[in-house]
Amino acid sequence: MPVLKPTIKNIKLCSNIINHGDVVAFPTETVYGLGADVFNENAVIKIFEIKKRPRFDPLIVHISDISDIDKIAHKPPERIKKLLKKFWPGPLTVILKKKNSVPDVVTAGLDTVAVRMPSNSIAFQLIKTSKTPIAAPSANRFTRLSPTRAEHVLKQLGSNIFVLDGGKTVYGVESTIIKYERGNIYLLRPGALSPEKIEKEFGKKLLMPVAGKIESPGQFKKHYSPDKKLIIVRDEDEIKISEDAGYISFKDRPLKKYRFSAVLSEKGDLYEAASNLFDILNKAEDASIKKIYVQRVPLNGIGFAIMDRLKRAEGL
Ligand code: TXA
Ligand code: MG
Fold it and tell me: Which CATH code for domain 3-173?
């Protein structure tokens, strides 16, 4: 079924689907999302069912204007407002105190809600024409590879879903999730907006969530995984070459022969590497290999999010 070109007419069609209590997949600047009207509980339940996602894993709510916050959450603290003015629209998600208008199924019963304003123009228009905030997780099966192309959505969720096709997403890793508590910001999920950029604006180091203290449900040890074994290596010397092994290097072309090989960024550019990451992992998943070796990337900037995803894909 329908992969739709993102024309005004098709975006309107998808808004109608959302307003009728159904779901559509759409591109954002990070990954593709599977969206439903946040205020329609039954529509949101469909998302969990399609993704086979456990109900305790809360969703992110997408808005198209900063004033939409009022519909779903209480006013953000001043220091967070300053960050939103700087980084929205864009790949930053903030955890705010939720209003009762948001059904519990969206937030997995928490008293907070995750909010983000995407910069992708198709996502923006879809939210705007739907005239409602859109709850949307990544449009993949629970724990599996994130979708950075319309085809990845179909591959995982089947062809019964309408997908607005915006081509390959720009960042290729999900948004950065932060939570403000008593003068500090906790990094709940590394993502497309680097910690360094947030720290520069906030004027203070970000803190890591303390288990049991700061709620960060849904950040599972095994996540973002291909359906074959993934092993992180420093370089090719660590690889046991075999018939069924593939190799994804960071910037240098693999020297030896593999049944499958790819380079994340020949220039060694971390943004390019992030943008290619899930696209290449999807290709590796489809290749006739059993193991995928992936080379480490530097931890600075968006590299921190790439390594987070690789470690979870490795799932050790
Ligand atoms: O880039 C993105 O953020 C993409 C696109 C589609 O916008 N969305 C996305 O959603 O990555 P998802 O469902 O794959 O990840 C949402 C995660 C949850 O697993 C959880 O860790 C966190 O957001 N989350 C949601 N609500 C939360 C809350 N109230 N408190 C703490 N963490 C929350
Ligand atoms: Mg996800």
Answer: 3.90.870.10
3-state DSSP: the chain helix, strand, coil percent, rounded to 5? 30, 20, 45
Least distant ligand from the CA of 94: 1
235-283 pLDDT, tens digit each:
999 998 888 999 999 999 988 789 999 999 999 999 999 999 999 999 9
Q: Is 159 exposed, middle or buried (0-12, 13-18, 19+ CB in 10 A)?
A: exposed
Q: Residues 229-314: name the CATH superfamily.
A: Threonylcarbamoyl-AMP synthase, C-terminal domain (3.40.50.11030)
Q: Is 143 in the pocket of ligand 1 (CB under 6 A)?
A: no
- Ligand number, closest to the Cα atom of 126: 1
Distance from the alpha carbon of residue 21 to the mean position of ligand 2, in angstroms = 22
Q: What pLDDT, in 10s, does the model give residues 115-136?
A: 999 999 999 999 999 999 999 9
Residue 128, H or E segment = helix 121-130
State how beta strands 260-263 and 184-189 pair: unpaired
Where do the structural domains in the chain lie, given as residue ranges?
3-173, 229-314
Residue 7 token pair: 């024309």
3-state secondary structure 239-257: CCCCCCEEEEECCCCCCCC
User: Residue 255: what pLDDT?
Assistant: 81
Residues in the chain, pLDDT under 70: 1, 212, 214
- Give the pair of three-digit tokens for residue 175: 């948004």
Distance between Cα 83 and ligand 2 center (Å)? 23
How many other β-carbons are positioned within 10 Å of the β-carbon of residue 296? 15
Q: Please tell me if the CB atom of residue 169 comes closer than 6 angstroms to any atom of ligand 1.
A: no
